[in-house]
Design brief:
2 copies of one chain form a homodimer. By secondary structure, chain A is an alpha/beta fold. The longest helix of chain A has 15 residues. Chain A has a single domain, classed as 3-Layer(aba) Sandwich (Rossmann fold), CATH 3.40.50. A 5-stranded parallel β-sheet of chain A has the order 2-7-1-8-9. Chains A and B meet through β9 and α7 of A and β9 and α7 of B.
Chain lengths: 207, 207
């Protein structure tokens, strides 16, 4: 690449960045702050069959679709990845990711730990970031604070999160998302993306 | 590591960062700006037998030593790496690097392309950053502007730099150090170090 005088190092291959981690680590909050800060990434909108929470907006936070529509998307192979998460379906619309990468933009997607493993297999060149809390207590407190769960649902999430914490080894990077340091988390994710663009052997996503 | 509640992710293993690249890409200038910006790294002071340039300070820019003293350091195995660069010897005092790493500080060293290859073999866990210019013209102009060379010396440096540009594949990261974007270069190096500290499988330097 150095031999090509027209090569412009500041316009490298776009990256596929997966932000994952157990329930309660604050994936949504981190993504929200990244958007608020106007970072120049394409943020993937996930399709889901789960009910909309009060503050969520369709097409912005998620595409809220019916089970029938979700089934159609699976049949038509329109989803990059999909999974059942706490009895609800979530999936990444494929074309959206392709369009964003084709436009040269880095693509950032939030995805559950289970789904991140699938992405790794489908697209080994993806950059996988595992968000975690400083300790388990902080994670449990966050799940409790969410107050959208029944007691049984909460216990299920805590048990699952404990298992998911063990999956960190499958990821490229780990970032502690502490309660009062949200901007540091975002800064670290930016640094990871910045650094990845300077790899001598760049990742080439081919979806 | 997640299982250990005492693990503090913000105090990870110190890194060994090698800033390299052909003559004329501005390695010294980049290191100088990193120091001016007060970045919290240990900057290795290289020992050299070459004559001091007017603005250089002994013990700060280099340790300027006699050929006899350099020979003694080689014999006593006090150098991590040493090489002949344009008829002068340069070497990295080993103990200095060990002391800095032991204190938990990331160690940054500037080293010629030839020496970076040696470091890679001695310490595979080092982070190797290759500085380059946007194109060859910019590199040649910088070498000319230095005005510390005879015409023959300049031609030798240009020829060597051309060869060294081909060694980029042996490095981890490549950073274009453009003339008017010195702070961007430093920001990128910082991002690389920041990101490296968040690798799930951290590099462990064992010198």
């Amino acid at each position: 690449m150095i031999a090509d005088p027209d090569f412009d190092i500041f316009h490298p291959e776009p990256l596929l960045i997966v932000i994952s981690g157990p329930s309660g680590v604050g994936k949504d909050t981190v993504l929200q702050r990244m958007k608020e800060r106007g970072l120049p990434f394409h943020f993937v909108v996930t399709a889901t069959t789960r009910p909309k929470r009060p503050k969520e907006v369709n097409g912005v936070d998620y595409f809220f679709v019916s089970s029938d529509e979700f089934a159609r998307m699976i049949e038509a192979d329109e989803l990059l990845e999909h999974a059942i998460v706490y009895n609800d379906y979530k999936g990444i619309p494929k074309q959206q990711v392709r369009d964003a990468l084709a436009s040269g933009k880095d693509v950032v997607m939030r995805i559950d730990v289970q789904g991140a493993g699938t992405i790794r297999k489908l697209e080994p060149e993806a950059v996988l970031v595992f968000l975690t809390t400083r300790n388990e207590e902080e994670m449990v407190n966050r799940l409790r604070a969410r107050k959208t769960e029944t007691p049984e649902g909460l216990n299920l999430r805590i048990a699952t999160a404990r298992q998911e914490l063990k999956r960190v080894d499958d990821f490229d990077y780990v970032v502690v998302n502490s309660d009062f340091l949200l901007d540091e988390t975002v800064d670290t994710i930016r640094a990871i993306i910045h650094a990845e663009h300077h790899r001598v052997h760049p990742r080439k996503v081919s979806l």
